[in-house]
Structures are given as C-alpha cells and as structure tokens.
Amino acid sequence: MSRNIFGPTQPNEGSTARDHLANERTYLAWHRTGISVAALGVAVAKFAPHRGGHAVAAGLILIGAGLLVSAYGTVRYRVISRQIESGEFAPATFTAVVTSSIVTLLALLAVVVLL
C-alpha cells in the first residue's frame, strides 16, 4: 500500500484540480519574488562599495521585505486553498495592497539608507 506524502487526495470535480494548481503556481511566484528581493538585499549588503553600515542596514531591510513577501504568499496560499475547498472566494484586495505598499516603502527606505 503506497502512502501519499503530499496529503489527502481531493476529488477532481469541475475545476478543482486546475484551481489548486493555479493557487500553487501563484504561491511559488510569491516565493520567487521574496527570494529575489532577499537576494538583492544580500547583494546590497555585500557589494555596495564604501557604504559600510549603511549597506548592511539597507541589505537587512531588503531581506526583511523579501521575508515579508514569502510569508504573505504562504498565508495567502493556505487561505485560498481553504476557500477552493469550501467553494467560496474572497479577493485579497486590501491585504495585497497593504503588503505591496509595505514592501515598496521598505525598498524606498533601503535606497534612502544607502544614499
């Protein structure tokens, strides 16, 4: 008897499988974006010439922004997964705008610190 290491299986009724796969792709995109922002933070902290503590501070801000993006993606993935199973959907207009705004402000703060 084989065991499914990914969790319980779901019946594929209507567009359930397609919806879950789209949710998973979006989740991975959030992580890819978060990793990119964090990698930019590492690059700034490591390679900004003659900036010293300012480069490290800017890098840490960008790393924090990248972690925030990944965390939001994880929370959003789980919420949408539950909504797909319940047959309901509530767009995340407020939380998406707030998260994007915070990340943008953190990036701008990192630029100001670096100058």
UniProtKB/TrEMBL annotation:
Broad class of where this protein is predominantly found: membrane
Domain DUF202: 18-82
Subcellular location field: Cell membrane
Key word Cell membrane present: yes
Keywords per UniProt: Cell membrane, Membrane, Transmembrane, Transmembrane helix
Listed InterPro entries: DUF202, IM_YidH-like
Top-level taxon of origin: Bacteria
Protein topology in the membrane: Multi-pass membrane protein
Spans traversing the lipid bilayer: 55-73, 93-114
Family matches, as PANTHER family: DUF202 DOMAIN-CONTAINING PROTEIN (PTHR34187:SF2), FGR18P (PTHR34187)
Record's protein name: DUF202 domain-containing protein
Provenance organism: Rhodococcus jostii
